[in-house]
Design a protein that fits this description.
Elements: E1 3-16, E2 19-32, E3 36-40, H1 47-54, E4 62-67, E5 72-75, H2 87-97, H3 103-115, H4 131-143, E6 149-153, H5 161-177, E7 181-186, H6 189-195, E8 198-202, E9 209-214, H7 222-225, H8 229-242
Parallel strand pairs: 3-7, 3-8, 5-6, 6-7
Antiparallel strand pairs: 1-2, 1-4, 8-9
């Protein structure tokens, strides 16, 4: 597979009046086209910093981040839908920002929304939708500009457990069907195992890669993976790495 993103010995230091904070140090990994990569690590270890570096929002203090001319879509922890805009208008927002709000682009965005179960909600306001449906709308909004790669910053963490399982399954299917590359940041070990082709475990801050694992399950759906006997084995491995 073609490599689309690479971190080469990346370090990131923040400076303030209180001194220097080393968030990431000498960190290397790569993501290939079509891969779903999950990154797990202790709270506060610098996971979200990696997404900002990948998207080019931050410049590393040392090392380099290489992306092969790909475009990124960023999905946040909360849906961040504007309450005064309908779901349709929220989905069109990235098109307006990028000045690509053409009839063709709007038609593609609407087709995505209809394909993934939002047809009857397009004229609704976010307050009338469940948390799961709002997060699905947020994903369609991210996909509206047809990014090559999705950066997912704990996108299910604001949902209750049952909704989280269902939405995780939905989002996974949409990403796979649309043939997108994805980089997921999560503190949830089970979530990482249920969706990823590859899982990276980070150390406590400053973040370094402790281990990298290729996962292979006969099942593709997250909910079915959780029922596989290999699931508990991987959970134990990753749990130990996180608690070294």
């Amino acid at each position: 597979m073609k490599e689309v993103l690479r971190f080469d010995n990346v370090s990131m230091r923040y400076h303030s009046k209180q001194g220097e904070t080393v968030a990431v140090e000498d960190l290397s990994f790569s993501v290939h086209e079509g891969e779903f990569v999950a990154i797990i690590g202790p709270s506060g270890c610098g996971k979200t910093t990696l997404l900002s570096l990948a998207a080019g929002l931050l410049t590393p203090t040392a090392g380099k981040v290489v992306s092969s001319g790909i475009s990124f879509g960023y999905m946040l922890q909360k849906d961040e839908l504007f309450p005064w805009r309908t779901i349709e208008k929220n989905i069109f927002l990235p098109l307006e920002i990028k000045k690509t709000n053409t009839p063709e682009a709007r038609a593609r965005a609407i087709a995505l929304a209809e394909k993934y179960g939002l047809k009857q909600f397009l004229k609704n306001y976010p307050s009338s939708l469940s948390g799961g449906m709002r997060q699905r709308a947020a994903l369609i909004r991210t996909l509206a500009v047809d990014p090559d790669m999705l950066l997912l910053d704990e996108p299910f963490s604001a949902l209750d457990y049952q909704t989280r399982l269902n939405v995780c399954d939905d989002v996974y299917k949409i990403i796979r069907e649309e043939k997108k590359t994805a980089l997921l940041i999560t503190h949830d070990i089970s979530e990482a195992i249920s969706v990823a082709d590859k899982v990276l475990t980070l150390s406590r801050r400053p973040a370094r890669v402790v281990a990298e694992h290729e996962l292979s399950f006969p099942e593709s759906e997250p909910l079915k993976r959780r029922e596989n006997k290999e699931f508990s084995k991987w959970f134990e491995i990753l749990w130990r790495e996180l608690n070294v």
